[in-house]
Write a structure and sequence with these properties.
By secondary structure, the chain is α+β, with helices and mostly antiparallel strands. The protein contains 9 helices and 19 strands. Helix 3 crosses helix 5. The radius of gyration is 26 Å and the shape is elongated.
Length: 337
């Protein structure tokens, strides 16, 4: 009898130990369900403010004729240059200084969509001071403030990463509740200067483009795309024609692959720029986006390339090689039209 009691006691201890491990190891307990941390519709989101000892970052949601977009202001804090801190997930990458403003790109979508409504993988109950310290929440390294339309801001403290790095601990300062949140929602904010800028200048999938017009100086040409949904049979022709125009296709491909290397800040505005070329795309829903490409020079006389469009909402620096190559081939595509 005594032996049976001992066995049952051991089994009970093992069960309790397993339950404790599940409670403290959210990744293992992930059932695919979610807990609502902050309710609201996507359109309710007005502003996101992430603040740590090293980085102050604000995403403001704006709207124009092309739709809603996020505008970011990111400031590296402190006088010491940032250094690599592998133990601190909130440290921005090194060699970043000062203030940068830019339009948020696709990498911000995961964060913005994940914050409104704000959902967690699970909630942790009965948090003691010792437990908060273990989770990095006794003295949190960062805070996250979410502003919804017509409501007071909600503030959350960001703790450490769950073992494995897939999740992060988050504490609601109003209720004191602690949640396990997918790190993919928070991580883009931690290195916002690198991860959040929009690198595209057109912002439209090629298969959604029906017309493409290019202009250089007084010359211009227009082309149309056929079979855009058929990868094997898609082609470009001169507008109004049906014959394949390989010269146009090659140049259009270069133009649509132009990418920003960074937004021009007020403190480093370039000198006089000369217009180089411009192109306009028309989409299946009849929207038009015009990209104006300009050329400037640095102090050594080397070419610098810039662009601005309805999509960028501001002046951006272009990656040099492709912008220069497109300019070099401009006469050919104008003749082909």
């Amino acid at each position: 009898m005594k032996r049976s009691v001992t066995i049952y006691a051991l089994l009970l201890l093992l069960a309790l130990g397993g339950a404790y491990r599940v409670w403290t190891s959210p990744e293992e307990a992930d059932t695919g369900e979610s807990v609502t941390v902050l309710a609201g519709a996507a359109d309710d989101l007005e502003k996101v403010h992430y603040h740590s000892e090293k980085l102050d970052l604000v995403i403001e949601l704006r709207k124009d004729e092309l739709g809603r977009y996020g505008w970011v202001r990111a400031e590296t804090l402190g006088t010491e240059p940032a250094v690599e801190e592998p133990e601190n997930p909130h440290a921005p990458p090194k060699d970043e200084a000062g203030v940068a403003e830019f339009k948020a790109g696709k990498n911000a979508a995961t964060t913005l969509e994940g914050l409104m409504p704000f959902r967690a993988k699970r909630a942790l109950e009965g948090m003691t001071d010792d437990k908060l310290a273990e989770l990095g929440l006794a003295e949190p390294e960062a805070t996250l403030e979410i502003q919804r339309a017509g409501r007071e801001p909600a503030t959350f403290e960001i703790g450490g990463n769950v073992y494995g790095g897939a999740n992060v601990y988050v504490r609601d300062t109003a209720s004191g509740k602690v949640y396990v949140v997918d790190a993919k929602i928070i991580r883009p904010l931690q290195s916002g200067k690198q991860s959040l800028p929009d690198r595209e200048v057109v912002g439209v999938e090629t298969k959604l483009i029906t017309r493409f017009a290019v202009k250089g100086g007084e010359a211009s040409a227009e082309f149309e795309q056929h079979n855009p949904d058929d990868a094997e049979n898609v082609y470009w022709s001169t507008a109004g024609g049906s014959d394949k125009n390989e010269t146009a296709a090659a140049w259009i491909d270069k133009a649509l692959r132009l990418r920003s290397s960074g937004y021009v800040q007020q403190t480093d505005a370039p000198g006089k720029l000369e217009p180089a070329y411009a192109f306009t795309v028309r989409t299946t829903d009849r929207k038009e986006i015009t990209v104006e490409v300009s050329r400037g020079y640095d102090e050594n006389g080397d070419e610098l390339w810039y662009a601005q469009s309805e999509h960028t909402r501001g002046l951006v620096k272009l990656q040099k090689a492709l912008a220069a190559e497109a300019f070099a081939d401009l006469a050919g595509v104008l003749d082909a039209g």
